[in-house]
Amino acid sequence: MSGTTVWRLIGRACDDLALTHPQFKDIRFAPHDFRRLFATELVNNGLPIHIGAALLGHLDIRTTRGYVAVFDEDVISNYHQFLARRRAERPKEEYRDPTPEEWTHFQEHFDKRRIELGSCGRPYGTPCAHEHACIRCPMLSVNPKMLPRLDEIEEDLLTRRKRAAAEDWQGEIEGIDLTLNFLRSKREQTSRFQRVGTVNLGLPHPRSPLTPE
After folding, report:
1. Are 109 and 124 in contact (CB under 8 A)?
2. Model confidence over 21-76: pLDDT tens digits?
3. Which of 41, 86, 89, 121 is the most exposed place for a label (fewest CB within 10 A)?
4. Is 140 helix (H, G, I), strand (E, B) or coil?
5. Is the pTM of this model over 0.70?
6. Which helix (H) or strand (E) holds 49?
């Protein structure tokens, strides 16, 4: 179906809905709204938000948070419910208190996830799959304070590219171009989150009583 056909089908469905639910009159939905509704339903029904991010194709979980119309405490609560259901399905002997050595290893994993540009989101117990090529890695979450460092890295890459072009190192040029694309994408994404800032929602006002029909 073309995009125009989808818009018409949604508009027709909204008109039909308004016949029985007048409160929906003049409300219009876009196809992308259903993507947000899908994400909200997933998380509200207990699916961990990082799995929802993978289903939606988001490289950064903060993008998914913007899609999901729930509060952080709801995300945490639903995640705990999801874990409780999964644990109930597994043998009890699999759940025990960790040894001091295991707990130390667990803490060291998260210490190693702190890197120059921000933090690495790789799961516990997994090694770095990209040989520390962090700029290209989708698991990298850039700290907004490190945006100037990205500019420095980009300048260095451009200098290296000029040298590679002068020497006709085609493979080197291809690799540098790929790294530049990832760097600029991450910088744009980090800048976008930084621009959002705090949203002033104002003070709530009590609703006026409904007029009886």
Report:
1. yes
2. 887 777 777 777 778 888 878 777 777 777 878 888 887 777 777 776 655 566 66
3. 89
4. strand
5. no
6. helix 49-56
Q: Which two tokens stand for residue 8?
A: 């018409």
CA dist 88 and 169 (Å) reads: 57
Give which of 137, 128, 155, 143 is closest to 187, Cα–Cα.
Answer: 143
Distances (CA, A) of 133 to 120, 137, 139, 164, 208: 11, 7, 11, 19, 58
pLDDT bucket at 213, cuts 50 / 70 / 90: very low
Place of tokens 């520390």: 132
b (16+ CB within 10 A) / e for 59-96: bbeeebbebbeeeeeebeebbeebeeeeeeeeeeeeee
Q: What are phi and psi of 177, to 5 degrees?
A: -60, -40
Strands (E), the chain: 114-115, 118-120, 140-142
- Looking at the predicted structure, is the pLDDT value of residue 98 above 90? no
Query: pLDDT of 139-195, one tens digit each?
Result: 888 888 888 999 999 999 999 999 999 999 999 999 999 999 989 988 888 887 766
Tally of CB atoms within 10 A around 52: 22
